[in-house]
Amino acid sequence: MDTLTLQIMNTELYIAMPKGVHFRWKEKAEKWLHYVAKEWSRFQSNNELSQLNDLKIGETLRISSLLYDCLVQANQYYQRSNGLFSPYLKRQLEQHGYNQSFPFDSAKSKAFQNKPLIANQPFQFLGDEQVMKVAQQEIDLGGFAKGYAIEKLANWLEQEVSPDFGLIDGGGDMKMWSSGEKTWTIGVADAWDNDKEISSIKMKTGAIATSNRVYRSWMQGTMKKHHLLNGQTGEIADTEVLQASVVTSSLCDAEVGAKLCFLMDGDELQQWFENNCQQSARFIVKEGQAANWRMTGEK
Description:
This protein has about 300 residues and is an alpha+beta fold.
């Protein structure tokens, strides 16, 4: 196989394609991923996302068509989950001490005079790539931007470069395709030990996303914090779930679904997947409990 490995978006990203593809795909792939890492990260100043976050209430900004599309998709998941998944938690994450890139062990909270408010629909999407800020919240696309970027790149590689097969692995968020002969075996890592595999699943075409509250965690004073917040309250998700892996056709669906595993109870979660994914599987690791696969849709 022909491969490309990049350290980008705070992860190791790996692409595998068939050998002998007569197309210079690596250069275009790198350019796209570096663009997303630079322009859509909340940790970069003077980028496209920071211009949006710096808007005053009532101001509008025309942004790039791809960032607009990513934000509109994230906002649709926000609406469909009644705000449990939210791309509007930058200020809340900073208040909890998550104001630097991982890895770090301890953090101070950013000083806010008052607790950051949670508003319903803080940005409006006006069409023609124009966005209006309507409340004092700020955008953090986080893992959703990575999933969106991988999915866009995978769709382009499959359609324009190699329909036979290919795979992109962005630190556990994966998109793969196969025209029929190639079958991928995807491992699920232990929540506490990334080098240890606890399960696996075989597939030809689809996506898998994993969220874990063990690795992206830190101490803030005497409080243990992690990066998974309840979008309705801005508070750290209080859950027994340590790790969730979701398999479905869309990486964006899988990315959001994995986060919701920390925020919904079992029945609510089952309903979400039945309503939003034609076919899916999830593997949820809870404290002190054995994990197993749960399916929705056609077997």
